[in-house]
Amino acid sequence: MGDHRDAAGLPAVDEVVTLLRARGDALESLLERAGRRRDEHLAHEGRPGTVTYSPKVFVPLTRLCRDRCHYCTFATVPGRVPAAYLELDEVLDIARAGADQGCTEVLFTLGDRPEARWRAADAWLSARGYASTIDYVRTAAQAVLDGTGLLPHLNPGVMTPDELAVLRPVAPSMGMMLESTSTLLVEPGGAHFGSPDKDPAVRLAAIADAGRARVPFTTGILVGIGESLRDRAESLLALARLAQEYGHVQEVIVQNFRAKPDTAMRGEPDAEFDEFVAAVAVARLLMPLGVTVQAPPNLAGELGDADDATADQTLLLRAGIDDWGGVSPVTPDHVNPERPWPGLDALAAVTDASGFTLRPRLTVYPRYQREPGWIDPAVAPAVGKLADADGLVAPR
Description:
The chain is an alpha/beta fold. It is 39% helix and 14% strand. Its cofactor is [4Fe-4S] cluster.
C-alpha cells in the first residue's frame, strides 16, 4: 500500500477502495500480495503451511429475534418453531452427537434479545426462571461444558460489558459480525431497516467492549448487502483499528451475500465472486499479524457444482485465507441451510493442492491459550483437555 497512512499505520480509505476495485491483472497482483501476507501471518503464529477449520456442531438456541434483517432466513416467527427456545436436553443431545463425531466446538447461534419483541420468548424464559436470553445462554453453555467437555462459542448478538463478564467463565471465545459500517443500511429500504442491533455505532461499541473485557473475538463483514465500496473499505479499516487497539480480534470472517428464498432480498443478485475475493484479499492486507482471515467454504461455487466450488475455494486460498471456519459432520449451517458443508476429504484435497495442510483447531486460537489473561480460569481446564502442544486439536 502507499505512504498515506494514519496514526495506526493503516492506509487512507480511498486507497482501500482502489484495491477493492481490482480486477484482471490488478486482482492477480492483489492476490499475490495477500498470499504473501498470509504466509507471514502463519509464520508469526508458529504454524507455517497450515490452514485450519473448526470441527463443530451448531446449536440454534432460538430462531426468534427482535431484528428484521431483510436477507436472513434464520430468524422466524413463533408460529413456525415448536418452541421459542431449545430445551437443555435438546442442546445436550446436539452437543453429544458432535462429541461422538470428534467435534470440539459448540457454536450457539441465536437471534438478538427475542424477548424484547416476542411475548412467546419472554413467557418461555419466565416460566423457567430465566431473566433474559443471555441468562439462558449462560446456563446452556455451562451445561455443554459440564455434560460434554466441548467448548461453547457464543454468538448472542450485541452484548453489554456486564453480559460479557457473565458469559466469559463459560466460553473461551465469543463473536458478532460487524457486517457493515454503512448507516444507509439501517434506513428505509436498507437491508438492516427495522433492526436496532445492526446500528453500526452500536456494533462497533460492542466489539470494543469485548476487547476491554479480554474476550477472544470473531467478527467480520458481509459483502453484497447493499453497501458501497467505500462502506466496505471503512468497515474493514474499523475492524483493523479495533484489532490493533485491543488485540482481541482472533479472526475476521469475510462472507459473501447469497440470496435466499422467503426473504425480502430474495431477488437481489449474489455478490459477484471476483468482487468478494478482492474484499478477502484486502482484509488480509489490512489486518494485523495474528488475525486469521476466514471465508465459508460452503458459500463458494454454484450450488451442486463440485468443480465450481473447488475453483472458488482455490481462489479464496490465493486471496490469503488461513481458516475455513466451522465445518460440521452433524448439523447443517443454520444460517445458510441451502448450502451443505463440503466433505472434509474434499476440503483437505483443495487445501493440499494449494500447498497447505488442513488441521482442526479449537474455538480459541493458540496465541490466546499461550498469553495469560485471555481465557477465564473457570473454562481454561476444558480448553487444555482438548488442545495439543500447538494449541490445535489434540488427537483422540
